[in-house]
Each structure stands twice: as C-alpha cells, then as structure tokens.
Automatic annotation (TrEMBL):
<dbReference type="InterPro" id="IPR008979">
    <property type="entry name" value="Galactose-bd-like_sf"/>
</dbReference>
<feature type="signal peptide">
    <location>
        <begin position="1"/>
        <end position="22"/>
    </location>
</feature>
<protein>
    <recommendedName>
        <fullName>PEP-CTERM protein-sorting domain-containing protein</fullName>
    </recommendedName>
</protein>
<keyword id="KW-0732">Signal</keyword>
Length: 201
C-alpha cells in the first residue's frame, strides 16, 4: 500500500513540475488570413480600414491597413480571460505617414498601453510586446487609429496566457494523482479498521 501512495505522490509531483507547453491562442483571425475582419468588431470610421495583400502583411498573405480619415476608427475583440492571470500580448505594427495627422492607440481592458502620435514618424513592421494582467473574465483588446492619407499596418495579433499556466493535460495529471492518493489512504484506513475489529472479536 505504501508503494501505491508513493507512486501516486510521484505522479502528482511530476504534474506539478512538468513545464507548460504553448498555451492556446485567444485572438480570432489575428493574422487576417480569412481575407476579412472575421472575429473583429469595427466601430467609428471604417471606410479606409481594409484587409490587403502581401504588400501590407508582416507574415502570411494578408494584413490589415488602418486609415480612418478626419476621425478615428477602432478594431476590437473581447477575449475570455481569467482574473489575475497574466497574458503575453504581441502584434506587429508599421506606419506610413504622409500628412502630419495620424495616431494609434492600443488598449487592454479599457486601459491604454501604447499611444503613438504624429511625432512617431515612419517605420517598417516592428514587434510590440506586453505582459498584461486580466481583471475580469472578459477582456477587450482594441486598436484605435487615424491616418488622414496613408495607413497604419497591423498583423499577427496574439494573446496567450503566460507559460506558467498548466495545460489541460497537466491539470488532468494533477487530479488523477490526488485522486489516487485519496483512494489509497481510504483503503489503508479501511484496512486498519478491519484489523481493529478482528482484535476485538
């Protein structure tokens, strides 16, 4: 019986120490490879917000060109999150200025995490990364933008729980380990009660 308990503890310990694998992608259509804004909500000025070909893609075949004129447009998604959990957030962004009026804001859960204005100048695709904490079971990611003549380019938007989160397989292993320990202890206790009964008989 002792061997069974030790084996169960070993399985549980393995589950606790097993490194987490890549976590699930939370963003739908983050690379815009569907050819449209499926999974995204467009609000504000949307007439110059388009999915375009390889000329505006960071990877794959397509990317998003964001060019609201004389006002702002917004591209957003609401993600299912765990309060208190941290998330790795990343996206690729490029700027093609022409007129001096352009702006870009990235928001997480209503808070602004990146704000670029007319002084940011032109730049090719650059990786933006953040580690952010969710405060609710639903977290909105949003990109608000204006570009009066040319475009911002956006591609490869990604949100994943940080790697310290156990995957489903790890949780299953933990539960099986604890269940085996509980069953072994219960059987051991039942055996001792039977032994006491035999002594009194």
């Amino acid at each position: 019986m002792r061997k069974v308990i030790l084996a169960a503890f070993g399985a549980t310990a393995f589950g606790l120490s097993a490194p987490a694998t890549a976590t699930q992608e939370l963003v739908t259509n983050g690379g815009f490879e569907t050819g449209d804004f499926g999974g995204w909500l467009q609000t504000g000025l949307t007439s110059r917000t388009v999915v375009c070909g390889s000329s505006c893609a960071h990877s794959g075949s397509l990317g998003a060109a964001l060019g609201a004129t004389f006002g702002t447009g917004t591209l957003s998604q609401v993600l299912t999150t765990i309060p208190g959990q941290s998330y790795d957030v990343s996206f690729w962004l490029a700027n093609e200025p022409d007129l001096p009026i352009y702006s870009f804001d990235f928001r997480w859960g209503g808070g602004t995490r990146l704000s670029l204005g007319s002084g940011s100048g032109p730049f090719g695709y650059s990786l933006e990364t953040f580690t952010l904490i969710a405060t609710d079971t639903a977290t909105q990611i949003a990109f608000e933008f204006e570009h009066d003549r040319t475009f911002w380019y956006l591609d490869d938007v990604s949100v994943r729980a940080t790697s310290g989160v156990p995957e489903l397989g790890t949780w299953t292993m933990l539960l099986l380990g604890f269940g085996t320990v509980g069953l072994a202890l219960r059987r051991r206790r039942s055996g001792k009660i039977g032994e006491v009964g035999q002594l009194h008989a």
